[in-house]
Structure formats: structure tokens, C-alpha cells
Amino acid sequence: MSISRRNNVQLLLEQTIGQLEKLGGDFSTESGNMVTLEKRLSEGRFHLAVLGQFKRGKSTLLNALLGEAVLPTAVVPLTAIPTFVQAGQELSVKVLFEDKKHPQEYTAKNSRQLVAFLCDYVTETANPANQLNVKQVEVFHPAEILRNGVVLIDTPGIGSTFKHNTEATLNFLPQCDAAMFLVSADPPITEVEIEFLKQVRQKVPRLFFILNKADYLTEQEKKEILSFIKKVLKEQVGADETTHIFCISARLGLQARGDNDKNLWSKSGLAEVEKYLVDFLAHEKTEALRQAARKKAADILAEVLMQIQLSVKSLQMPLDDLEERLKIFREKLTELRRSKLSEMDILEGDKKRTHEFLEDHAEQLRRKSRAYLKGIFEETFSKLEPEQLSEGAIERSLADAIPGFFEHEAGKSTQVFQDKMQQVLGPHREKLNKLIDSIRQAAAELFDIPYKQVQATQDFEIARRPYWVSHQWARSFRRIPRGVVDKLLPAG
Ligand SMILES: Nc1nc2c(ncn2[C@@H]2O[C@H](COP(=O)(O)OP(=O)(O)OP(=O)(O)O)[C@@H](O)[C@H]2O)c(=O)[nH]1
Ligand SMILES: [Mg+2]
């Protein structure tokens, strides 16, 4: 029965693709998505992703399931590109790019080489804001769990200061057939995660919940956190009360695989997760993939249908009527273009004033740092005995003082910039929203389409905090170039 039902879905998809192709170039994206979906269904390629807030341990969990560290992990927000891990005889990687650039392929001798290669493409540190234009990364690995068409997908963490990472994961969701949603105790579950989870539930047909980093917790703490998370899931996301939450330590799991320690693998909670996944994949994968394909195809078709309805509406209108309405709409657009121009002039003025404000702030900061470093210099000078006094000793005390000072000032300055930007850009945002809204409203009225007000765009935000070029602060400078200390001190 399941085979014929699957064939039915496949048959329907094939017919739909044929119909979409007849609609022409305007629907090429939708028909392309449908072709990909049909291909995935016929190959039985099942996309199982790990999702969650940044630093919950997603990459570490996948490494543990694969049996060795192949995906880069770190203490700072790291994974920046969805990484598809699938079955392969040898360890290798294929990097696909957004532009026409030829894919980059690499075969590694061992997992260490593979991580090193991947780091250059999938991490925020080496490929900030995806400046290399990477579309997707495919890793091939011989792990048992990847047999039978399962593809494990590592995703960028949501909610970090790197907004493009959240976007990359949200854009990836439609390709997901099932997901492990990872949380951890620090803190148990955040508002950002709840909002994310609401979107995930709409797009991903099967979800497993996992509490990671359990090695930090006592048994009592585990119980409290699990019941807290269940309560939040029930009240805010509408999850079933009986939702099971696996409790694991991905770090211990990875260690267990490295040491081939079965007891530790059990203790890490990963034996239970692995068993569950293997059972699920053996018995429910085909049906889950079929369901997912149906849902995704329905989403694509809903989009197509809306576009067709709009076209039909405009085609049904008598030509004279349509011309008349278009004329009125064009006049409205000319009027709005004038408003936009004067708005741009005011914005340009505000930009100049904000620039001056920031220059001023930077100058104050420069003066403050000079005074602070002079203080450190003098304090070291007065504390040390003449025989202890050396350039090295002064360099060390400056090197100790600078990171803390910078971190503190960077935090304060970010807040000052953020407040200033809100104050300056807030009124512009409101006017912009009104402008956009009035275009939509005019179009809706003229063409008799139901009008639905769009949600106001979000506040403008600073996408990145100021940061050090390198976070690696040596306790002492290698060598301060001669004269730098003099320059830090005020003249005279
Ligand atoms: N104590 C403890 N630490 C863990 C565990 N799992 C992961 N970590 C640590 O948490 C940090 C983040 O791990 P990653 O696997 O890079 O986290 P991620 O969710 O992939 O992070 P992003 O890619 O930035 O979203 C690393 O320092 C890991 O060693 C765990 O089970 N216990
Ligand atoms: Mg990661």
C-alpha cells in the first residue's frame, strides 16, 4: 500500500511539473522547486536537520552521531552555511556557489583535514557574512546512520548578532523533512527560540526535541528544566503534553565515540537518540518523506495559485477600464515619487549629522582611552622598583588592561550608536512604511483586490557589534614598536 501511495504522489508531482512548465518562464522558480522535490522523493533522499539557537551544540551533536569530529565547532557563533552530510565511501566535500563559479571539491585523508577544509567555507570567522557566496556545502561520510538515503544537515544557529545566519536557516526550512530541535540549559528556552519554533512547526513536518549539555546538570536540575521546557512548549507553541524530550550530552557522546566507550555512549543519552532515529528512519522514513513532499508541493502550488488569480483578475477587466485605472495609478506613483525625493533629502541631512555625532563620540573615546592608558602606565611605573622597570613589564600591564577596557567601552558605544540610530531612523521608518502602504492601498482599491495591511517593517538594527580584529589576546605583546607608548601619552 505504501508503495502505491508513494507512486501516486510521485505521479501527481510529475503531472504538476508538466502543468507548471506549460505556464511559462514566470513560474520557472516554482517549477524548479517542484522538480527538486520530485527528484528527492524518487531517490528517497530524506533531509533530517538539526536546528536551534546559536551555540546549543548542533554541530557537536552531528559529530557524535557521525562518530568523529568532521563539522567545525567553537565557543563563538560559528556555522554560517547549511551543511548537508550524506553517505559516501570516502571523506570528501563539495562546495557549491551562488554565482556560476565552478564547485570546489576536496577529498580528505582524515577527519582533521576535512574540518580544516570546511572551516574555510562554512564558518562565520573564515567566511564572514558569506562573502565567498557559498550556496550549499555537501559532505560525504561513510557513517552507518547515513545509509538508505538519510542526509543529516547542520544549520547556522539562529538569534546571534549575525542576522544573516538566522536568515540562512529560515530560508533552508522548506527543504527540511524532519528536524532535531536542540535546546540547552543556559538559559532553558528563550523568546527568540519560541518564535523560531513557531515557524519551524509550520514548515517542518516531524520534530524531535533534545536538551543538550546535560553534563552541566544534576538529576534534580534536569527534572526541573525538562518540566519547565515542556510547560513552555505546551503553553506557547501548542505542543502536546506528552512530547518527549531527549536529554543528552553531545560532548560526552563525541568523546565516547572517540574512545569507543559503550558505557559512556549510553550515559551521554546518545544511545537512546541513535536508537530512536534508526527505528524512525527504518520504519517511518518513506511515509514521512511522502507526507513532507505532499506538504511542500501544496505550499508551492498555493503560491502559484495566488499569482494566477491576480493575473486572471487583471485579464478579466475591460481594456478601457484597465487603462483608466492604470493612468490613475501612475499619477499616484508620480505623487509618491515626489514625496520620496523630499524624504531622501531629509535623510541625507540626518546622515551627515549622525556622522558628525559619531566622529565626536569617537574623539571622546580616544581621549578617554589615552587618559586610561596613561593611568595604567603611571601606576605600573610607580609600583615597580627601578630594577623591575622594563619595557616588557609596561607592555604586559597594558596588554592586561586593554581587552577589558575595550570590551566595556565597545558595549557602551554599541548602545549609544543603537540609540542614536533608532532616534534618527525611527521617524524615517514610519514615513517609509506609510509610503509603501499607500502604494499598496491605491493598487488594491483600483484593481479590486482585497487589501491587507502589511506588518510594519522591523526597527533598523546594528547588524554587528564593533569587534576586535583578533580576539586572541596574548598576555603580552610580542613587541610594541618603539615610540608607540610615547604616542599614547599626551604631548608635552
Ligand atoms: N558542556 C558541554 N558543552 C557542549 C556540549 N555540546 C557542545 N558543547 C560546547 O558548546 C560549544 C558550541 O558547540 P557547537 O557544536 O559549535 O554549537 P552550535 O550549536 O553548532 O553553534 P553555532 O554553529 O554557532 O550555531 C562548543 O564549545 C562545544 O564544545 C555538551 O554536551 N556539553
Ligand atoms: Mg554549528
Description:
The protein has 492 residues and is of the alpha/beta class. The chain has three domains: 1-43 and 298-316, no CATH class; 45-283, 3-Layer(aba) Sandwich (Rossmann fold), CATH 3.40.50.300; 319-488, no CATH class. The protein is built from 14 helices and nine strands. The longest helix is centred in the last third of the chain and has 65 residues, at 319-383. The chain is globular and about 95 Å long. Residues 454-492 have low confidence and may be disordered. Bound molecules: guanosine-5'-triphosphate and magnesium ion (MG). Magnesium ion (MG) is lined by residues 58-59, 78-79, 154. Guanosine-5'-triphosphate binds at residues 54-60, 73-75, 77-79, 156-157, 212-213, 215-216, 249-251.
Key terms for this structure?
binds magnesium ion, globular, single chain, 9-stranded mixed β-sheet, 492 residues, alpha/beta, disordered C terminus, Rossmann fold, binds guanosine-5'-triphosphate
